[in-house]
Amino acid sequence: MSQHGVGPRAVTRSVAFLTAGVLAVPALAGCGSEDPAGKPLAAPDIQPAGRDRIADGGTLRWAVDSVPDTLNTFQSDADATTTRVAQAVLPSMFRMNASGRPERNPAYLESAEVVETEPKQVVLYKLNQQAVWSDGREIGAADFAAQWRALSGKDTAYWTARNAGYDRIQKIERGDNALEVKVTFSRPYADWRSLFSPLYPKDVMGTPDSFNDGARKKLKVTAGPFSVKEVDREDDEITLARNPRWWGKPTKLSEIVLRTVPRDKRAAELAAGTLDVAEIDPTAARRITVAARPRSSSSPLMGPGADRSAADALRSWAVANGTDEDAADEETVARKKLRKAVTKYTRQQQALRGFEVRKSLEPAYTQLALNGAEGPLADERVRRAVARALDRKELAEAVLRPLGLPAVPVGSHLALSGQAAYADNSGALGGQDTKEAQALLADAGWVRGGPVKEREKKKEGEKAAGAEGEKAGSAKEDSDDDGTYVVGEDNKAHGRQDPADHLAHDGKQYQQPAQGGAPGAYAPKGTAAPANRGAAPLAKNGKALTLRFVLPSGPGSQTLRTVADRISRMLEHVGIGTDISKVSDESYFKDHIASGQYDLALYSWPATAFPATDARPVYAKPVPAADGSLNVEQNYTRVGTDQVDQLFDEAVSTLDEGESRSLIRKADSRIWAAAGSIPLFQRPQLIAARKNLVNTGAFGFGTPVYEDMGFLKKGAKPAAGPSAKGSAAR
Fold it and tell me: Boundaries of each Solute-binding protein family domain copy (predicted)?
């Protein structure tokens, strides 16, 4: 699965992938007796085991995407590895449970509650009396106060990425004793549990210099089950070691080594014995699953030469033993290379038998983003038509069903199934309806068979552009994996494979739209095609309705690109063409999504337990900046309304949790109605892990408990629980 995602809590908050108010919004599901939040669609799959069954010691080698540029999660260049390190070495007052809801972390907190609401909101934290920093100092009010001052936004010398919540604090003081921290807010703040997770020591937060630079390359003082032993940027590794001052349950592992390994190299590294756990793609998951099965004639063929038929093998033998000496020599070399590759692959498969695939659904969802700033999608009717053309259930099934995961379309922009704020509000926009989509387009002035002038001019420009233009507009097969191609302006296949063939088969083939004519009927070359306005592209003012669909071109984005192909064909069915452009992974987000150089795009947003805080900048109405530019914050679709902004403001300012959830659901209904982004499916989470590694794997919503990770004692069995043995990527 593509890794193109955006973390609202990892990037700048002051800163992803007709008005909506006139649309009818259905009654909220929360009005009934049944909880609309439901349950998580998939449970964690971590091979649970009691601590008494886990060996003491050992090193866990864990693949990551990179050694981060900073170990400070509150800086703009923090990444997923920054978060992983922080979870293992720093305090968090609250952590996420298996349903994606915040729960008190007993290692640090005895209790935390709102003790006053008038005249000001006051939260009283009672700390675990054993909680100390690795230098022996007690965790206390001074650390809370230093973090508040650094993140309040009042001192611009601190290079902070986000200030939300901290900017509402009025003061922090010690309570009745050193274990109590009293936080007084200047304005009510519903998401107060989001604060101080993680909590850095005052040594890091105390001055701008220590904040900006002190925690980028190292963390001298920590307070988790592990501490940072070494950051090796030459070997791209971070080593975490047991914290000798840890007061909680004894840490089972001696060390955790976070190793940078590209995703397409991870299966080979697992087989080589240099990794114990790694997030993997569906192809690697299938390799591991097949390796675990007994060898039989029914096992699917994989690896080098798997696509060679008996006829191919016979032909190869004939050439290698033929009279053409040059051809025979060339074929003999090729056969030796193939045998060597097969031998290597077979050894790797044997080694992979020691691993299994653990799977769940990632706390993130993939969406189709529609750029409403300009062009056809500035018209809400066209955006709604795009949404009504999509069969979201089919898209979810195409990605998730082959992996054995629940294929349920996401029904909310602001939460996922099981989270407190979740409710399926997609009814505010409506489901797939071809006739309704076509009616919306007609109402917006787009008609079939109208004159089209612009595309011919563009084609001339592409031709004049030489090789680059040929790359962009060519239908040659050798440009299939990059450049640009157009779907919807004609019904030619352009040499492209049906996108359904790229996915693991889900039991039904995607049906192409009818192309007219009887199979096998041909006319002499040059015969004019019959008039067929129904098959012509939609046009308006001499321009065809063609949308720029920008996609990443990296090897990890194949599933994303295949989903885009299916979407393109769904849009083609209602008369909307797509101009698909594949760009480098490095430029995809920065140069296209964030800058607004796209009409359609696919990227992911992570789930959050605090949507009133975290999701507001993602859906806030863009406002003009002083220099005349548009301040979009994180709203890369450029679609927003004053009503949605108001609902977010109300939700974050009420201390009634039920009322806050209701306001969030109302906001989500109006976001659906505006049709700026269409949630599609929750992302699959596939983890390869050694079979004797326990309490580790596909965590789903839950925050990992690092002190419980480890390897089983010899002869010990894991506890009964969810397992992915032999079930992923069939």
Answer: 115-293, 347-455
Give the span between the Cα atoms of 513 and 536, in whole angstroms.
13
Whether the Cβ atoms of residue 646 and residue 607 lie closer than 8 Å to each other: no
Q: Measuring CA to CA, which residue among 443, 478, 527, 607 is closest to residue 5?
A: 607
Distance, in Å, from the CA atom of 180 to the CA atom of 144, rounded to the nearest integer, reads 11
Q: Where are the beta strands (DSSP E) in 499-620?
A: 538-540, 543-544, 546-552, 577-583, 600-606
The span from the CA of 418 to the CA of 424, in Å, is 11
Best CA proximity match to 79, nearest among 14, 187, 5, 183: 5
Residue 608 is which amino acid?
T
Query: 160: which residues sit within 8 A by CB, 6+ positions away?
Result: 74, 75, 150, 151, 153, 211
648 class by beta-carbon count within 10 Å (0-12 exposed, 13-18 middle, 19+ buried)? buried
The span from the CA of 259 to the CA of 560, in Å, is 26
> CA-CA distance, 368 to 604, in Å (whole number)?
9
Ramachandran region, residue 372 (left: φ > 0; alpha: ψ -120 to 50; beta: rest): alpha
Token reading at 289: 């699953």
Q: Read off φ and ψ for residue 362, nearest 5 degrees.
A: -65, 145
CA distance 726 to 653: 48
pLDDT digits (tens, 9 = 90+) for 169-214: 999 999 999 999 999 999 999 999 999 999 999 999 999 999 999 8
- First-to-last C-alpha distance (Å) of the chain: 16
Q: Would you state the structure tokens that stand for residue 479, as one six-digit string?
A: 């440009």
Alpha carbon 106 to its chain centroid, in Å, reads 29
pLDDT category of residue 535 using cuts at 50, 70 and 90: low
For residues 401 and 399, give the distance between their C-alpha atoms in angstroms, rounded to a whole number.
Answer: 6
- CA atoms of 330 and 557, how far apart (whole Å): 35
Digit-coded pLDDT (tens) for 640-656 = 999 999 999 999 999 99
DSSP 230: E
How far from the centroid of its chain's Cα atoms is residue 614's Cα? Answer: 16
Dihedral pair phi/psi, residue 648, rounded to 5°: -60, -45
The Cβ of residue 289 has, within 10 Å, a number of other Cβ atoms equal to: 23
